[in-house]
Inverse folding.
């Protein structure tokens, strides 16, 4: 009977985790560059039994288990809708690709949030994102704004041109737009950014990426889908709760019979 209670409890724990994941998606329905996350489960394997037959060896052991556990958090990297802002430092990537940023410890992270700002520092002016992370070019260098720049123009390939009011070009830089062989292998790094992992494969330039200026990419969360997922999760939670309650009642009956 204790096993039944353990199975039901694992269902409750993991369905609660799924509810937390859904709540996080709904909370970020209006977050620029946010990518929808889905929680996937697998069955637990923690008991080792022997396979039928005479050859009972370690290699012949049969793993079995009960209940479930979290398998993975799967991200949906589909492109979301674009919202026009007409702001000079708002950018979005059409098709597959990520901007590259340098975080506070010097690591490179990737994201689709192209709401950029200028950071005036002692050694010059740099392009940063909303979190203050440096925006990197295709060679992973910080993008510095030349002194005297009044306007930033762009090409769809990611080239930025820094010009004056008189259309005098002071310099150029190319925004780093990268992609990976397996996007689902990327690890969430916070603030809608992701870090590379061995599972993501080798990084490469996003050849099909098209840069757009004056627009931002919204969240790809679909509230209708999240509500439907929430209802299914609540039903599963209720069922696991009822199973736990039933197992507890049966345990109580067994204890009374023992007396």
């Amino acid at each position: 009977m204790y096993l039944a209670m353990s199975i039901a409890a694992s269902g409750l724990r993991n369905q609660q985790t799924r509810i937390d994941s859904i709540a996080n998606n709904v909370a970020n329905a209006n977050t620029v560059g946010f990518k929808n996350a889905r929680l996937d489960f697998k069955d637990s394997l923690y008991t080792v039994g022997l396979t039928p037959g005479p050859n009972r060896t370690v290699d012949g052991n049969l793993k079995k288990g009960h209940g479930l556990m979290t398998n993975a958090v799967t991200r949906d990297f589909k492109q979301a809708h674009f919202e026009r802002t007409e702001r000079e430092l708002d950018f979005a990537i059409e098709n597959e690709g990520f901007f590259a940023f340098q975080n506070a410890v010097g690591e490179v992270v990737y994201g689709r949030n192209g709401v950029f700002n200028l950071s005036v520092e002692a050694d010059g002016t740099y392009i940063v994102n909303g979190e203050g992370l440096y925006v990197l070019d295709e060679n992973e260098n910080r993008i510095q704004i030349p002194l005297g720049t009044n306007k930033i123009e762009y090409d769809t390939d990611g080239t930025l041109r820094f010009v004056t009011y008189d259309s005098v070009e002071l310099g150029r830089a190319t925004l780093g737009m990268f992609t990976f062989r397996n996007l689902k292998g990327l690890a969430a790094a916070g603030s809608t950014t992701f870090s590379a992992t061995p599972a993501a494969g080798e990084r490469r330039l996003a050849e099909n990426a098209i840069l757009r200026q004056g627009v931002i990419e919204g969240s790809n969360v679909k509230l209708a889908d999240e509500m439907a997922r929430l209802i299914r999760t609540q039903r599963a939670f209720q069922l696991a709760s009822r199973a736990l309650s039933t197992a507890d009642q049966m345990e109580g009956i067994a204890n009374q019979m023992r007396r």
